[in-house]
Design brief:
Layout (H helix, E strand, L loop, with lengths): L1 E6 L4 E3 L11 E6 L6 E2 L2 E2 L8 H9 L10 E2 L11 E4 L8 H26 L1 H7 L7 H21 L9 H25 L2 H10 L7 H7 L11 H12 L3 H4 E4 L5 E2 L3 E8 L4 E7 L3 H22 L6 H14 L2 H14 L6 E2 L12 E5 L4 E2 L3 H6 L4 H19 L1 E3 L7 E5 L6 E5 L5 E3 L2 H16 L2 H10 L6 H9 L3 H6 L8 H13 L1 H10 L2 H20 L5 H22 L3 H22 L5 H20 L10
Parallel strand pairs: 12-17
Antiparallel strand pairs: 1-3, 2-7, 4-5, 6-7, 8-10, 9-10, 10-11, 11-13, 14-16, 15-18, 16-17
Helix pairs in contact: 2-4, 4-5, 4-10, 5-6, 5-7, 6-7, 10-11, 14-21, 14-22, 15-16, 15-22, 16-17, 22-23, 23-24
Length: 634
Amino acid sequence: MSFFAIQKNTPCCVSSRDHLHKNRKYVIVALTQFRCSFVDGEMAANGNGLDKSFSTSLTCLPKFTSADVVKSVEINSSTKGNKLWIMSSWKNVYPLSNYQVALMAGHLFKVSSLATAVFATSGFYLYNRQMNLNDLSVIRFGRAATTTVLISFDYITAFKHVEYDTEEYWALKSKVHLRSAERLRDLCCANRGTFIKVGQHLGALDYLLPEEYTSTLKVLHSQAPQSSMEEIQQVIREDLGKELSELFVSFEVKPQGTASLAQVHKAVLHDGRTVAIKVQHPKVQGQSSRDMVIMEVMLKAVHWLFPNFSFMWLVEEAKKNLPLELDFLNEGHNAEKVANMLAHFYFLKVPLIYWDLSTKRILTMEFVDGGHINDRNYMKKHGINVNEISENLGKMYSEMIFVHGFVHCDPHPGNLLVRKCPRSKKTEIALLDHGLYQVLQPDFRLNYCQLWQALIKGDMSEVERYSLRLGAGDLYALFACVVTSRSWTAVNAGISSVPVTHSEDVEIQNNVAQYLPQISELLNRVPRQMLLLLKTNDLLRGIETTLQTRASSSYFINMSRCCLRAIARHNRSKDRSWRRHIQITLAESLDLWRLTMCAGEVTPAADADHLIKKSVKWLCQAISGGSSSVEARP
């Protein structure tokens, strides 16, 4: 159904997307299709009729009949879209918000009555069985439905006496955003598990949600509800078949950290090794699939009320990734894979996995201590260089994204610790929680490499070209801004040459609401691989912002290095000629050397030595005839 608003005694061309001033009088005309005409309330030859339920609602209002509604003439019968030319001619007019509220109240009364009846009839049963109410889907659904109703009702009714685009309007809107975000946070904490996981994802969507939402939901990363010690013991007993005393000399009751799906305890084995035990919350497995259905229903309901709100891609991603995150054996394999893949980074610490004490719900690993990567006070206290940490973090993720296409997609501060290595005394970054990885397809990864190269240089034709290849279509400009979290002005100039300013961040945040429909459409267009990359980018930028190292020159240099290496590796894999292999390798070496020299780095010798050795290696392979069957590994 489409809603058209007609102001009293005013000829106007209106549509369902028009902004309406709440301090003026309107009446709603609801049409089953966009192109309908009425004369004195009767259906015209080219019309499809006034919706029956709506007509009934109108005639129920005092002193107001469908014959009073509208006299309209469609001036061009071939007009496309949702435009009508209307001349109002009635005596009794009602405010827009009154009808909307009445219509909403009717639907919500039915839902709440049904829910109340279900809760009441199940009360005695639940009391006698001593069941936890939170385990019941109907309770979890009831909470979600109530929160959805309250948030929707707040947005519909809050602005009815405030004129659009005034200072009062924006101040009120910020308050409504904050109230709604707090309700959503409380829902996540009450329903726990999957709800917290999705809430954490929403908290990372700085490019899509207002600041009130992202700042409120970010606390879910560190304030997730924890399971009781009895529940933890029960999971260990069921999965490992032994009591705590049989497995550990000591087991700390207070968890080291609590996340959406599990919590981590420190323990000591009988052989003296200190370990971290990650134990899944006991009811997450059973609740996750039902919770996804609840969220899907709620999102569809909100989309029906607010057509510009389209977050179904979030549910689709959660459905795909949640089963993988709930399998801790999969997490252990991911940890070992990334440790081997990035073994050349001396600063990276990935905990060892103890497979004999691990199951799908329990992961036992080497205990690694340290401070959160966004804790500047910890770094200052322990003599850790903030710039070094930021640069190494960029190196690590650039390597994962551009070179290997195997990306750790949950880099929030709780999963990244910094410390001084007890033996070498060198600074280390400990990478934790390996449940969520994105595997990038080769074509996608290469196009993404080329896109970032173009963004760094400010080459707009190349930005458009590779944005189109990544599915952005005519929204390529918006796509470039979303990928970089920079303004279009900065993107045009080349993001490596324009520093990030507070005013630019404010501009981006203010534009989020304006472009929300286009952003939602964009996120539904791009490949699913892109969604987790965007989340990862935002989490990394949040850390860099806290460390005050965002958009540093070293970040773009390291990213460019990885892009060049990835492209060269791809080119070598496509060509079997040893001569071409040598040409590609020498061209790569020259490009990397130029990049190092242009950056003005103090120690280009190490890079130069590495590149010379690699070129000599290829030359030797070519002479011996071995290069034709060997793929280069930069």
